[in-house]
Amino acid sequence: MPSGFPTALVLEQLLNGLQLGLMLFLLASGLTLVLGIMDVVNLAHGSLYMLGAYFAATLARATGSFWAGVALAVPATAVVGVLLEISVLRQVYTRDHLTQVLATFALILMFNEGVRMIWGPQALLLTVPQELARPVLLLPGLGYSAYRLFLIGVGAGLAALLFLLIHRTRLGMWVRAGASNRAMVQAMGVPIQRVFTVVFGMSAGLCAVAGGLLGPILAVQVGMGEEILILAFVVIVIGGIGSVKGALVGALLVGIVDTAGRALLPPLFMRLLPPEVASNLGPALASILIYLLMAAVLFLRPQGLFPVRT
Amino acid sequence: MRTRPILVSQARRTAMAAPQGVAGRRGLVAAGILLVGFPVLAEAFGWQFYLNLITRAMILGLACSGLNLVLGYGGLVSFGHATYYGLGAYTVAVLAREGIRAAWVVWPAGVLMAAFAALLIGAVCLRTRGLSFIMITLAFAQMVYYGVVSLKQYGGQDGLRAPRTDLGFPLGDVGLYYLTLLLLAACLGVLWRVVHARFGQALQAIRDNEARAVAIGFPAYPFQLVAFVLSGAITGLAGVLMAHHTQYVSPAMLAWPQSGAFLLMVILGGVGRFWGGVVGAAAMVALEETFHAATIHWQLPVGGVLLLVVLLAPRGLAGLLEGRPR
Fold first, then answer.
1. Are A240 and A306 in contact (CB under 8 A)?
2. Helix, strand or coil, per DSSP, at residue A145
3. Is B212 exposed, middle or buried (0-12, 13-18, 19+ CB in 10 A)?
4. What are the pLDDT digits (tens) for A21-63?
5. Listed residue (A291, A190, A191) closest to A235, CA to CA
6. ipTM score here?
7. Which residue among A97, A113, A233 sits closest to B303, beta carbon to beta carbon?
8. Smallest Cα distance from A200 to chain B, Å
9. Fewer C-beta neighbours within 10 Å, C or N terminus of chain B?
10. Distance between CA atoms of residues B54 and B51, nearest Å
11. pLDDT tens digits for A195-235?
12. Chain B interface, best mutation among A41, A222, A298, by max B CB count within 10 A
């Protein structure tokens, strides 16, 4: 490590955090809308992410193109999402959250085992496409992964599109209204059930984008959905349930705090504390940083940073 | 304002569930006799495997009954009960590593450790409600989890061996079975008295309508905190027993999937039904073992059965056993 202030390291970690945050946003936006509009706790959201990644890896191999794989995985996962909504979620709308937790957990088990039966227990390989494999020189002395830059671009682009959709279209108006008061929206004659099916399919598609694009960075394997599901829930309770803006702010906060904490805290502790203490404390504190953040936010603002319902 | 309070079940608001009447009491006596007599049969027919399986189910049933006190009777969805379970278990293992093996010290220490953690965590978490409560209990559980993982001297990620403690006589598998049965019965007895006492009634009144309960003089916070600590202590005792059962503890015991598993077992058995925790844990263990023996893809049918239970038995398995709601 250079003796001075490691600007390049900090900048790199910020970009990594931004990249993780934007990918988390793709998952959290769908999760928060489903919870916000229909009040459904959908644990199977992570399974759709896993399925999207498996679809992308398989289709990429079949077509010989990473891009075709991801592009085809999105509609395929959206179709699975819509089928899931029609077959199971509709049955549990009117039930309490705990029942939904049990039902969607059952789905996790079935998805995981189904994937294991079809694709086997080994992780699939999804490689970074050739054209993005080389690092880009951002500043003198700071080379950064072209692929991660691409992820930042896609994440930011999709976030912008989603905001246009939510704030500038009729569907978006219904979605926002549905999140703040479903009964009233229904009474006004909005086909809330159809809106929800569309939102659910869309959120499944976004899961596939995140799954396919993160495939080359993380491993495509059974159970990959659960870890990230917890992060997505952390994001939406920080942001405020039902709020897309909250999901974006929450995702960026979690992404940057988590990445920066993991990269910067251990070396910092190594300098300040005796090594045997630092080697234990640094990683532990880095891991709990986002949970500290969530606990603090919830303690001060139980409804999250951008509450939808008043 | 939305009319449906978040995370509070409508279906659960039925009368208190208990094996009432002659049939329920007969069933309980029969189950008791079977459980007391089982090790004799196991010895005679070489059912060692099932002896251990039932011990495991009883320990998990104890943990779930502890959770059900806050979840079912308190209406508080704790997504962090693995913390108390794991702390109870780790207390056994860590004390054994330090050379303290007397059960009279280790067991109460495990329970007190869990209760103390529940007191600290509950004191903060109980200031929130609904989904916030779920996530904040998860947050604290994750903090404790990563804290335990970072204890390199006690195994870190790999966990720790936990030799059985000394009761003055060697504790074999049959001994542990009876001890577990005894403690389960004792704890269920305590829980039965608690939920039927004024304290338990107040707790349920707060669950059903907090504003009204407060107005008639039952402040939510102290009642819920006491219930939370008692719940944590019982789950901690289950952890102590599990450390003896497996003779090994690992950070996975404190991780969120374990908390989720406890929640699922209670939901499966019946939230807020007295036998919900025990029935749910036994059903989950039986389900997993049955399909595990039949196929390597056992999770698929387990998921299918869970889904069917959700769709067909809204009140959980204990609800089914009890018949119509009163």
1. yes
2. strand
3. exposed
4. 999 999 999 999 999 888 888 999 999 999 999 999 999 999 9
5. A291
6. 0.84
7. A113
8. 20
9. N
10. 5
11. 999 999 999 999 999 999 999 998 899 989 988 999 999 99
12. A298
A-chain residues within 8 Å CB-CB of B149? 284, 287
* pLDDT higher than threshold 80 for residue B23: no
- The CA-atom distances, in angstroms, between A110 and each of A47, B163, B303, B305, B308 are 9, 37, 5, 10, 13
Report the C-alpha gap between B257 and B255 in whole angstroms: 6
Q: Which residues pair with B102 in a beta bridge?
A: B166
Maximum Cα–Cα distance for chain B, whole Å? Answer: 63
**Which amino acid, one-letter code, is at B99?**
G
Interface touch B136/A234, C-beta < 8 Å: no
- Mean pLDDT along residues B176-204: 95
When pLDDT is cut at 50, 70 and 90, the band that residue A5 belongs to is low
Cα B17 to chain centroid distance, Å, stands at 18
CA distance B87 to B239: 7
Q: Which residues of B touch A102 (CB under 8 A)?
A: 264, 267-268, 306, 309-310
Q: Which chain B residues have a beta carbon less than 8 Å from that of A233?
A: 135
Rounded Cα gap, residues A95 and A97, in angstroms: 7
d(CA A59, CA A42): 26
Nearest-neighbour CA in chain B from A31: distance (Å): 14
